[in-house]
Every structure is written in structure tokens, then in C-alpha cells.
Design goal:
The complex is a heterodimer of chains A (about 400) and B (about 180). Helices cover about 75% and strands about 0% of the residues of chain A. The longest helix of chain A is centred in the middle third of the chain and has 32 residues, at about 140-170. Chain A has about 400 residues and is mainly alpha-helical. The chains are: A mainly alpha (about 400), B alpha+beta (about 180).
């Protein structure tokens, strides 16, 4: 907060996407891209169902991480009563509110469960003491019940937070902020637990003999990297097209950059801790997971992740000047999304191709499909709702926020 | 016969942060280099009003942190492969994975020490004496008064002119402080 601050007034035309603005065409364009991507994936997948389902699962978990990350972001802002983030919170609320779309996009995974999950084969479980022991949890009916339960809770929370925030846009009722704050603590617990088990169910159980209690936190780190990079990229692009000018400033970029940097280190901390314990104990049923990822070209991907997901962004995002420069931050955030995708790919695909990374056209088409549908819904919300929660009691503080 | 007292600098007293803030901007614009502002509490944005260049502490922390991290790794490498080689649970002598926690911790430790010691060094601390303490009025800098001191080693310093300049900034009191 500067001493010589001047009050920033929001003009009403800044609050919404102007009519005929280029961003109003985004939902349609993204929906077409998404539809074509899904259609192409379905066409390509006819002869190779396993490849289709694995590629689709990677794209799905990558896309889902933005919505879950958005939900966490909103909840954390309320729990910490943060003021700086009010100007970017609506973007995160819109991303989180896209969560029901993933419930629909989950259907192919439900149909492909037999191709994806080894534990779903009764004959395999019958001959495998480890899988038989886990069958109380890893069985298809309970798997579907859990998925339904996760999506129901995420949908309820994300919609409730967005609806109340929109209600405050209309009424200016300050008690809404208090209610959202009070609900944020328990909501974080619920979201954290459901996200943990979702990561266990949909990614970790691909290799049903293997387990790591840290795995959910690993996916959580990815979710937060996704949302911070997403918020930086979207608000930078919006300012390029004349939206949110003088509302989201270099100071907010700086904070998003700091959080992106911080969670890059957090991801490394979790990734290394998970690896370290398994490496030290050296128990075959645990090390085999890493052994697969050190085989053939997977080793190249593993080394790429160490360098690209930690060493390079650690030094690149460290200087203040990078976080305060739109072009430099945009490049850094885009890079983080790329390595985040590679990270999820590296979690899932070695189960399909043990001996080396095998890139398929389906990886690209499913990513376009899931990504396009997500962006279409997000952009639709963006066009329908005010761009900032403009009657939030902390908005003035957020507008004039400056890093000390 | 005492030698004529050497002048340390000129000291101006202000009543509010606002006066201090704007006076700092004018001292900065007048081209003074060896001067300082004193306040009982941090004033946000004062470093900009004073025209201070960015702190050099981050660079000290970076160098110290990298020294600590590489020193930690080298120490463990030397101990486990040369000085006292021991095979532990059948793993290679140089098992970098096992050395990461200590490498990380030493990086953090050296970085933190670098931050504290670097900050003290750049602030020329600790020191026992500062000529400004000769001024009785300066005692109130820990209470409710704000000061600007311009030192006589500043090339632009001229006792009479600098005092007049400080008075023109709205200071409630201006004095010369002996060294």
C-alpha cells in the first residue's frame, strides 16, 4: 500500500464484457474446437480403445486440475480474508464453476473403466492376494458411487460460492462475505479430502499394486500450479484486449507469480519426498512404479520433469522483474502449464506403455476436446457475469494494492 | 585550545509523515546523495520518495544460498566416497538422493544467515555511536517526530544553504549537528 495512493474508481462499462467484444466469440470457438477434438478422438479411438482411454484420462485430469485449483483458490482467499486477490477472484470462481462439465466428461472414463483399471477385472483379482485385499475399496460399484459423491460436492461448493458472490454483485450485502468466510474452512477440508481420494481413484489406482499416501497432495500441488498459471495467463490476455485495465495491475501479476513460484517449489518438495521414501525403503512393490518411469524413454521424461518442473522455473521465476513483466510472466506461466501436462502424462501413460513414452495423435485430440469444452464453459461464464466482484467490501483495497 | 568543531550534518524535524514524505521527494530531486530519513515506524513508499535503489540483499541471499547448497553436497560427497566410505543398505557410495535433504537445509541456513548478516552489513550495523544522538531533539525520533539528516560529506552540502533549503521544506526545526 503506497502512501500516495489515489482512489481507483470502477466505471460501469469496465465491469462486463462489452457487446460485440472479441471475447464474446470465445465460447463458440472453444466449443467448436472442443467438439471437433472429441469427435476426432472418438474416430481415432475406434481401433485402439486402450490408447484412447489413457490419452483421454490424461486430458481429463489435466483439465480437471484447473477447476479444482479454482475452487481451492476461491476457498483459500476467503479463509485467509485476502484482499489483494479480489480483482482476480471472479475469474477463478468462473473456472471452478465449470466443474459440473467434468462430471459429464467423466462418462467416457466410466465406460472405459475396464480398459483403464486392472483391478476391475474379477479374474485378475481372484489370482492376486494384494488386489483381493483391496477389493473392498477398489470395486466398480463403490468406484462409481465415490465419483458421483466427489462431483456432487465440488459442484455444490463451486456453484454456491459463485452464486453468493453474484448475489453480492446485485445486493451489495456485506454479510455474504462473512458467510462465505465462515464456510470456507470446512469447505477446504471437504475439497481436500475428496480431491485426494479422486487422485487415488483415477490416477493412482491405474497401478493398483502401488500406493503412496502422498499421492493426493502431489495432484493438489499440480492443481494449484494450474490455477495460478491460468489466472496469470487469462488476466494478461484480457488486458491485452482492453479488459480489466487498471483493475488487475502489475502488483497482482507479481503476487500470482510469487504463488506460482512457491507452488513450483511445493510440487518439488512433495515429488521428492514421495520418491525419497520409496527409494530409501527399497521395497519392490513400491519401487516398481519408479522403475517403470526410469525405463527407456520414460527416463528422459523423468529427467525433463526434474529440470523443467523445478530447476528451470525455480531460477526463471525467482527474480522480481520476471514476475512484474507481463510478457515474461506469461511465458513462465505457459511453460508451467506445459510441464504440468507432461507431469500428468508421466503419472498415467507408463501404465499403458511400460517400455517407453509413445506419443499418440489421441493425446493431442483429447487435450483439444477436453480443453475446448472447459474453455467454452469458462468463457461463457466470463461473458455472463461481471468481470470482478464489484461490491466486495475488500475491492477498494485490492484495487490499490501494492507490494511493499 | 579545542579545534573548531567538525560539522556532521544538518538535521530537520517534521511533525507528520506527510510532511516527511514530501520533503524527502524534494531532497531527492535537489540531488543530495548522502542523507537519510528517520521515523519511529516504517512509512510505506518512503523508499520511492527517497529515490533509494533496490536492495542488494537478494543477491547476497542467492550467493549465500547456492554456496550453502553446493557446500553441503560437496561435503557429503567427500565424506561418503573418500573420507569414510560406508556401504549403506547396498546403495552406491555417492547416493545423491540421500544427500538432498542436507543440501537443501544448508542452502536455506546459509541463505537465512546471508539475509540477516547482509542486511546488517549494508546498514553498517552494529555501531555504537552516531553523531545524530548529540541532538536532544532527535530523541523524539522513537516517539512522534520525523527527521531528515543531510550529511556534510555530501558534495552538495553547504551549511548555510542546506539549512535554508531544509527550512523551505516546512521543517519545524533545523539545526547543525557537530561530529
Amino acid at each position: 500500500m503506497s502512501y500516495a495512493h489515489h482512489a481507483v474508481e470502477l466505471r460501469s462499462e469496465q465491469l462486463r464484457l462489452p457487446e460485440n467484444h472479441a471475447w464474446r466469440r470465445l465460447p463458440l470457438i472453444a466449443a467448436i474446437v472442443g467438439g471437433l477434438g472429441l469427435a476426432a478422438s472418438a474416430g481415432l479411438g475406434v481401433g485402439q480403445p486402450k490408447q484412447f482411454f489413457f490419452s483421454y484420462l490424461v486430458a481429463f485430469m489435466f483439465g480437471l486440475s484447473f477447476a479444482i485449483g479454482g475452487l481451492f483458490f476461491v476457498l483459500i482467499q476467503f479463509a485467509s480474508r485476502a484482499a489483494w486477490s479480489v480483482v482476480v477472484r471472479r475469474v477463478a470462481e468462473n473456472a471452478a464453476a465449470a466443474v459440473p462439465v467434468f462430471a459429464v466428461l467423466f462418462l467416457p472414463i466410466a465406460f472405459g473403466a475396464h480398459d483403464l483399471f486392472h483391478w476391475s477385472h474379477a479374474e485378475a483379482v481372484a489370482h492376486d492376494a494384494l488386489l483381493a485385499g483391496k477389493s473392498g475399496y477398489l470395486n466398480l460399484p463403490f468406484f462409481f458411487i465415490r465419483a458421483f459423491f466427489y462431483f456432487a460436492l465440488w459442484t455444490f461448493l463451486s456453484q454456491w460460492y459463485l452464486r453468493r458472490s453474484l448475489e453480492q454483485d446485485r445486493t451489495g450485502d456485506k454479510t455474504i462475505t462473512r458467510r462465505l468466510q465462515n464456510a470456507s474452512g470446512p469447505s477446504i477440508v471437504v475439497t481436500a479430502l475428496t480431491m485426494n481420494f479422486a487422485a487415488f481413484d483415477w490416477l493412482m489406482s491405474l497401478d493398483p499394486h502401488w500406493y503412496s499416501t502422498m499421492f493426493g497432495v502431489y495432484y493438489f500441488a499440480g492443481c494449484l500450479i494450474a490455477i495460478f498459471a491460468f489466472l496469470a495467463i487469462v488476466t494478461i490476455l484480457m488486458r491485452r484486449s482492453g479488459l480489466l485495465e487498471n483493475i488487475v495491475t502489475r502488483e497482482h501479476d507479481h503476487d500470482l507469480g510469487k504463488l506460482l513460484f512457491g507452488f513450483t517449489v511445493f510440487w518439488t518438495y512433495i515429488a521428492f519426498s514421495q520418491y525419497f521414501l520409496i527409494w530409501y525403503a527399497n521395497i519392490p512393490e513400491e519401487t516398481v512404479w519408479y522403475a517403470h518411469r526410469m525405463e527407456g524413454s520414460w527416463k528422459t521424461v523423468s529427467v525433463f520433469l526434474m529440470a523443467g518442473h523445478f530447476v528451470i522455473p525455480f531460477f526463471y521465476l525467482m527474480p522480481r522483474a520476471v514476475k512484474r513483466n507481463r510478457v515474461a510472466l506469461f511465458a513462465g506461466a505457459s511453460w508451467m502449464l506445459l510441464v504440468h501436462y507432461v507431469d500428468i502424462y508421466w503419472l498415467a501413460q507408463p501404465v499403458l506403455n511400460h517400455h517407453g513414452a509413445h506419443f499418440s495423435l489421441l493425446d493431442g485430440t483429447t487435450l483439444l476436446g477436453v480443453g475446448g469444452v472447459f474453455i467454452a464453459v469458462f468463457a461463457r461464464f466470463l461473458a455472463r457475469h461481471a468481470l470482478v466482484p464489484h461490491r466486495d467490501p475488500r475491492l477498494p483495497e485490492s484495487l490499490r494494492f501494492e507490494n511493499v | 585550545m579545542a579545534a573548531p568543531a567538525k560539522i556532521f550534518g544538518a538535521l530537520a524535524e517534521f511533525r507528520t509523515t506527510k510532511e516527511l514524505f514530501h520533503a524527502c521527494e524534494k531532497v531527492r530531486d535537489a540531488g543530495y546523495k548522502t542523507w537519510d530519513a528517520h521515523s519511529p515506524f516504517p512509512v510505506h513508499g518512503l523508499e520511492k520518495a527517497m529515490g533509494l535503489s533496490p536492495s542488494r540483499v537478494p543477491w547476497i541471499v542467492l550467493v549465500a544460498g547456492l554456496t550453502g547448497a553446493s557446500g553441503g553436497m560437496l561435503l557429503q560427497w567427500w565424506v561418503s566416497t573418500t573420507a569414510y566410505p560406508l556401504v549403506i543398505s547396498g546403495k552406491p557410495l555417492f547416493s545423491w538422493q540421500a544427500f538432498v535433504p542436507i543440501t537443501f537445509e544448508l542452502g536455506v541456513l546459509f541463505g537465512a544467515l546471508g539475509a540477516v548478516l547482509g542486511m546488517l552489513h549494508l546498514n553498517k550495523l552494529p555501531r555504537y555511536y552516531n553523531a545524530l544522538f548529540r541532538s536532544r531533539r532527535f530523541d523524539r525520533v522513537t516517539d512522534n517526530r520525523f527527521f531528515i539528516s543531510i550529511e556534510s560529506r555530501d558534495p552538495k552540502f553547504d551549511a548555510a544553504q542546506t539549512m535554508k533549503f531544509l527550512e523551505s521544506l516546512g521543517a519545524m526545526h533545523v539545526e547543525l549537528v557537530e561530529d
